[in-house]
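Components:
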Amino acid sequence: MSALSFDQATIRLGRRDILSAASFAVREREFVGMLGANGAGKTTLMRAALGLVPVAAGAIRVLDGPVTRGNPAIGYMPQNRTGMAGLRLTGWDVVASAAVGRRFGFGGLDKAARREIDWALDEVGARALAQRSIGELSGGERQRVLLSQALLGRPRLLLLDEPLISLDPAHQKSVVEIARRICDDLKVAILFSAHELNPLVNAIDRVLYLGAGAAVIGPVEEVVTGPVLSRLYGAEIEVVRIKDRYFVMAGDVDVERDAHRHDAPHGHSHDHDDAHA
Amino acid sequence: MLDYDFMRTAFAASGVAAVLAGVVGFFLVLRGQTFAGHALSHVGFTGATGALLFGLSPLAGLVGFTVIAGIGMGLFGEKLAERDVAIGMMLSLALGLGLLFLHFYTAAATQAAALLFGNVLGVDSAALLTLCQLAAASLAALAAIGRPLTFASIQPELAEARGVPLRFVSAAFLAIVAVAVAECAQIVGVLLVFTLMVGPAAAAMALTRRLGLAIALSAALALAEAWGGLTLAYATDWPTSFWITALSGVVFFGAAAWRGAQ
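Structure:
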């Protein structure tokens, strides 16, 4: 059984095919890093697995079942986390709102719900941080608190959309380490999208690369190569490897670094947060 | 002062409206939809003046129009509430239409002032009963959608992925806001609805970081401001709405200063 499988899946946004007849499978209990240029469809792929974007052709299966909206077997961490910076509520209350947010009604949480929230926060080492106002945390601290929400309900597949965006290298490292530990301890599959391979390269089991409507999954040394990436980028790509670091170059431009710069503007404030922390 | 029947009614009416405004206003501020709430009050002005023109109860026109507009804004999607220009245009259009209705309605002057700036001393016992019923229904509805509303307000993308029906929640919430706006308009008038709906909620958020406490505090501040305003108006013979806005402003800026000093 696979945690998430795409079988000849085509996903269309407007008139553009984000994925065309793409096939790949994420195994159970596997940590997969997802890479690709901006607009390659990383977020769309996750939203399709969540049932928020329809599949135009082919099939997507989650844990050998059909895609359903609000699937409790999937834990999700969306990329768009704007607004949090100005929020004064405690991290605990934010996580709690997610824990009981699907049920209609009002009123306090029962003991079991409280225990579950504390457990999730402990898993990411954020129980103490969650007592503070979410808006006052640094980018990396806030990321850990928000990551705990993906664990609520003990899912078997985690979809984490750009958890490293606008974090400094130290915080990037800690988030990747937490994800690796969650994958091992809780026996969940993780699909972790990122702009750069290098922060992930020692932690992930395999890499999923998106580009030109296609998806290629495999061990890093087999996927991150000149020929494979040239096909996905539709341009001549050269991969330079120095020890455990990969540099993906188009001509003399470092593609991944460049992509990161283009995407950075909305994350600038977080950068500053981290600098102060 | 409580020996007077109209004062007792005024205290009861402003108390009911203030508690509703405090609770609903908290979510309005949390969602960043305060401008939408402001616009709804202007739509209410059109409804009330239209109702006057056609010989109906202004309160019915007020509630009817704001609720329809609220549901419409909610169904149009989350994004509409953030479209400042569209809302601003709707706001002035509504106010202009209200002016036209008043133009055709002969006994305009006093009614217009009452609608725009409130006339809590003019609330009769029949209106008080209606206010109580509307407030009870609104608070019950808010309690029913409370958890998904909180979730969708703080993290809409995650809530959507978890299966929260965003549109339904948004439309239901704005319908509740519409009722709260109509109630507040009875007390402080359509132009000053902000003072009870946004002021106490924003102050409460500055004072505490706990969700439940903030909601309770918002309601308590709104109640204190409304009753304080009535008391000061009784003592000074100045307009009640002025005193409520003054207290609301003092509390809000005081809370902001306290937070800044932290």
